[in-house]
Specification:
With 161 residues, the protein is of the alpha+beta class. It has a single domain, classed as Aminopeptidase (3-Layer(aba) Sandwich), CATH 3.40.630. It contains 5 helices and 5 strands. The protein has a 5-stranded mixed β-sheet with strand order 1-2-3-4-5. Helix 1 packs across helix 2. The radius of gyration is 16 Å and the shape is globular.
Length: 161
Amino acid sequence: MTEPISIRYAQEADAALVLEFICSLARFEKLENLVEVNLKTIRDELFDPASPARCLLAFSGEAPVGFALFFFTFSTFLGRPGIYLEDLFVVPEARSRGVGKRLLQTLAKIALDRNCGRLEWAVLDWNDRAIQFYEALGARPQDAWTVYRLEGSALMDLAGD
């Protein structure tokens, strides 16, 4: 894999590839049992013009080697939008070739073009290699914040269902 790396937005015809990357990321993170998404959901939700989510694909020549799935947020403190990177994944054989950096550079350019004040994401505590990579780019952990989540029955209970 020595071909140049190219980045482009995913299109509906790429739905199966996006799903494959999501499943590969879940296997890597040992979270495969949490994957509920399917091809129909990817097509219906990710590629709906009203969807807040966007996806970038990375290629080495013609071979797909990574993806970044993201959406726009809004910071009330900054009074500006931001980007939240939901997923970033590079296939093992393409790691250490600059693919992840190229995906993040593309996201940073999108953020600046859209007047975003930040680009943020979460990383699993055990993923030392990713943490070192992110910190080498200048990213810093937000230690003062703890992420909370409502899902499943807790979400339904709160909504009154």
